[in-house]
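Reader question, answered in our methods column.
A reader sent in the components of a multi-part assembly and asked whether the whole thing could be modeled at once rather than chain by chain. We filled in our standard form and ran it. Here is what they sent:
COMPLEX SIZE: two components
ENTRIES:
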Amino acid sequence: MNNDSATASRQLLATILESSPALQDPATLEGVADLIEKVSPLLQGRRLHNIVDFLAAASDVIEMTDDAMIQKLMTLYEESIGGVWAITNALQYASAQAGHKEAPPTLWKSIRRLNNDENARRGLDTAVNLMSELGRQSKISGQSFLED
Amino acid sequence: MMKNIIVVGGGIGGTMTANNLVRKLYPEIKSGRTRVTLISNSHWHYYKPAFMYVAFGKFFKNELRRPLASLLRPEINFLLDQVEGFEFKNSRLRMRSGDVHDYDYLVVSTGCIPAPERIEGLQEAGDHFYQHDPARQLFEKLSTIEKGRIFIGVTFPKTPNVPHQCGIAPIETTLMLDEFLRQRGVRDKIEIVYTYPTISQLTRNCLFLQKPTGEVLPSIFDSKDIKHKRGFTLASVDPENNVAVSEEGDEEDFDILMQTPPIRAVDAVLDSNVSQSPNHEGWLPTDRQSLQLEGFENVFIIGDTVDLPISKAGGSCHNQSPVICNNIAGLMRTGKTVDEYDGKVQAIAQMGMEAGMPLWYDYDEDVKPTPPTKIGGLMRKGFNRGIYWSVARGLI
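And here is the structure of the entire assembly that came back:
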């Protein structure tokens, strides 16, 4: 950039700044002065560069995000939060029920309830299914496979 | 003696309130002194705002609903039944099944239902996106139209200062429609006309029910070549000739009529004879601060069934629900209500297919429109696809 064009650019910038209504407000100028005070050590130490790079990366992520990514991320969110919510609720509910009784039922009564209560049997079946699936995955991870 | 709290309605207001009540009253519930019951006539909970996306092929039915029981805490007693009679004076509900339920506190969250049959010819010739099947039908038309005129209109309740369902939805869908038709490559052959009635709550001859937003709309619509017209209050539709006739005396032809229909409360609320709304609309007289049904200290109203001047939308329920829970807890524990609703509503408006605009307002402050952004659009999509279900569970 030669001297003439540099001077013209500076004049153009000055014109823009002078014509900005916000910059005519003393409160704005005071705020800007405060910010410059705060930012100047970051500028001098080249540390503000990291913030700009971070904003650029965040902006890139926003640009790259599409419907499919949102749907996948939100499915993950709902399944995680919903799952934790359901388990903690069930634990809290079960614990409150158990704690409410003066004395816990005998082992025989518990076994009889397990046998008669359809939901309890289904819960046991769920636990057995879970253990079966964990076992299947353990078997896979424990296997040694032949090299390609 | 055990206190019975009954929540009627499994939409967003009822679901989140039942969950919030359990959290608020957990000591009483844990000790067996209080029971929360939710009554719904459906096993399903629908995310109703997603119906408008169905009209543009962006949501499938199973993506916008969940089994209602999966959204409720285990302490809630869920009953699949329908209220046939509200006996507010006796604190009693009469059910379709023949059962009778007495309550100590009641939350009415029965919503509203579209009633296109209340305008002559609208049922036959009009379309809307406020329920799944009509939205699906609208999608068939929007995805096949090649040329012509899409006429958009809005019907307000006759009750003074009560809005239609989801105030911003007509603007959202108009902007989505513009982009949808551009993506299909047929926009230049289809005229879009957005209209608004002469009387819209407290405003007259505007393009929106709040002035600040109404004033920015012409420039937005002009930039997208969307025609706009004030003072068109739909009076009747001629289905044979596809002509919409207004109360102001205008006649407009159309190929697709996308009309926000009249709405009303559900039958049991209408039949309770407590509402003083004209036109048999059924909005229940609700105290604007405590949200109690006027004349009945132990009954609270939430969501679309209120007669308040705030949006009939989930963003209203989100702010009403904590007030109702606090007030029920206050009545049970101290004998008086302890919280007041300030009319706050918040949402993220879908401004076209990609952009979004967060907005909020209350009894005193109108929406201050801001430029729609891609981040706003991502926030809305994130809400649609996941965060909503946390709201229903009372987590957010």
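What stands out: Chain A has a mean pLDDT of 92. The radius of gyration of chain A is 33 Å.
Send us your own complexes using the same form.
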